Amino acid sequence: MPLPPLTEPRPLGWPRIAGFFIQLTTPMNSFLTFRRALRCLGLLVMLFPLTAWAQTAGTITGTLLDAANNQPLPFTTVVLLQARDSSQVATGTQTAENGTFTLEPVQPGSYLLRTSAVGYGTLRRAVTITAATPTVRLGTLRLASTTTKLGEVTVTGERAAVVDNLDKKVINVDKDLNSAGGTAVDVLQNVPSVAVDQNGQATLRGADVAIYLDGKPAPSNFRLEQLPASRIENVEVITNPSARYPAAGAGGVINITLKKQQKDGWNGQAAGILGTREKYNLSLSANRKLGKLNFFGSYDANDNHYRGESDLRQAATVEGLTTRTDQNGRSLRHQQYHGGRFGIDYDLTKDQKITVSADLSQSRGSSRENLNTILTRGTDAPLALRNLGYSNEKQHQSVYSVDYRRTWAEHKGRELTANVSLVDVGVDVQVGQRVLDGPASYPRQERRQLYGVGINVLQGQADYVHPLGEKGRLDVGLRNESWWSDGTTDYLLQAGENEAFVRLDNQSFAYRYQQHVQAGYATAQQEFGKWSLQGGLRAEHTTLDGRVLPNTGQFTQRYLNLFPTATLVRTLPGDQRLQLSYSRRLNRPNFMQVLALPIYNDQRNYRIGNPVLRPEFINSVELGHQATWKQTSLTTTLFWRQTTDAIQAIRAIDTAATRLSGQPDFITRTSYQNFGQTNNYGLEMSLNQPLAKWWKITASGSVYRNEVTSFLGDGRNRSTVTGTARLMNSFTPTKQLDVQLTANYRAPQLTAQGRLAAFHGIDVALRQRLFEDRAALTLRVSDIFNTRRNYTQLYSDGLESNFRTKYETRVGYLGFTWFFGNSKPSKKIDQGPQGGGGGFGG
């Protein structure tokens, strides 16, 4: 959909009187013109004292940059203090995304300008406003990390592990010791209000989120447990994104930024981590910068084994008879991963840069589960079985990307960026179950399903930022994403122990699927003294085409949607901010939720998509307040989320498949449907408080109403009050030793057909710096009390299920990292406030 032509803003120098523009009129309207002129003259007389005051007031402008790389420092607090009494704040503001700031109106007098940014030293500058010089242009101000030398000891300020802003949370992975040796799942488990379930699906405040990699949507097959934490630089969690972001994601956006260095010369680090019970991790990253060229690359590998236990209690009524399934199992998962990222940055000119990169990875996974099952049907004698469930998976992924950035030195804040990326994914999966032991009447069968999936994604995006004076900006952009997937699923049956596998044609399928999304957006931002306003509109056109062969399901969907966003910010005295934001979003069903393709988890349970499934739409409103007192910060957010056409997974007995199986148990079918409307609202808080020079706590929690729609479609929704809590203690007992102790808790939650039990655990980690900060030794123990387990209850018509699973969560890790070049380990866990900043959600 083409964007409307941009119109040039009205020049600030046009004649106006108190905001009313005067235009010439024809003689026929001379009387009306004269009367309007008198009204304007009277208004001018009434406003003369105010205009006279404004003329005597002054303006202070400047730009904040990072001293190390000359990058802008956005959303940094700038405060103007009275010189005679520095405890009195005259005015304050936040820098824009290009680092610029303006303070006005400022009365004549002497002041002290002070800046505050997480991870940077405080800058102070004396400023004087007089009638002769009402405008002071400070130019470029550069901030650097605070460095103090005590003999041979150097202490450097560092960014905090978790930076909590009003619109987003930033997790600096190198500072979060509790993710060492883990994956992206371990990183997100430490994010306030984020939960990751046993299937690796992340939710924020109970809603699904969109996962991004380096600012670009991740492929729909992307799994968090496949990405090592060692590859991650930081993670941004954006709860109410602006119109610049694609609208997908009910709960917001999680953007994972991968490591890439640009320091001069050779730099990098190598790390090896060993975990208890066969867990091995290796990572290497480096860069080499020569003039206009910067070469960067990284390699990561892991080989991990995980044990687990499961327990299932299930009862169903089929054709008047009650059938019970009691099952317990022990499992072993083996995961291997190899991945590398390589690229080049080239400075075409001082204002233009191009980056070419390739991200290649390959993973293998296998699992084996021994199952003991007792089947009881009616008054018949119980039937005891012993089964082996197994799965094998191979996946390769290639991501090729070209990025371009253009700035204008003579026009600060003006920027053009563009990106084109190609994703190629191939997946082969084998899932099966074999009967090892049972009564003679029960067939010794082995059932196996083979999947072959190919995915190609082509993405392109261009964004342009145009400043509107010193306090405003206009952002526009276009995006296209095309997604193709072809695959096959073959269902095989081995009737006897020594017989060949036979393909069951009536249960074997192929599919084709494609999705195209074209989008355009525009946002405008303007500051009015202590007020800042941003508004935006995004348009997205979606085309879905799918087909399951041989002709068992075909569908086409096309829809155009508009997504408005708005944010209002008010700076308050004493380093405080108040922010109100609104966004409209949607949650598109993924291709496995709409394809009528049966996928068997085992011989008794399968899931199948619904071709008429529609996206769910979300209206989200947030009101946030943030206050900072020296090294203490408190962030409070009230949120409300309304969801229409909510997508729910529904599990029920497939009576036809049960009858055809001829076995004394039953087969369940899981599908997806849209149900009504839900309203969820709650409160979220985050506190960062130093208790001593060597001890700091970061406490966060949320309490919210969890409402789910009735799966019966009768409008009788269920709701409960739930929430999350997290407490991280950061200790620095010596100058070279850092310790973190973290506790997490997630209260019980409702699902469409049941509930999830509470989930909680405690982690501990420490890091000792060695060899004059050329190396670091890390020791970490996850879930030290072994309490993390999953318990799910499901209810539906004639079916009741209770699942308990316990994966290997108590693991000890020992890691060693060596730094070379200008790379250094994190000096200390930041003791400054973790708040500040904010902005407009991207």
TrEMBL record:
Residues 175-253 form the TonB-dependent receptor plug domain. It is a multi-pass membrane protein. Its main location: membrane. The keyword Nucleotide-binding does not apply. It comes from the Bacteria. Pfam families: CarboxypepD_reg, OMP_b-brl_3, Plug. It is found in: Cell outer membrane. Keywords: Cell outer membrane, Membrane, Receptor, Transmembrane, Transmembrane beta strand, Transport. Residues 411-818 form the Outer membrane protein beta-barrel domain. SUPFAM superfamilies: Porins, Starch-binding domain-like. InterPro entries: Beta-barrel_TonB_sf, Carb-bd-like_fold, OMP_b-brl_3, Plug_dom, Plug_dom_sf, TonB-dep_rcpt-like. Belongs to the TonB-dependent receptor family. This is TonB-dependent receptor. It comes from Hymenobacter defluvii.
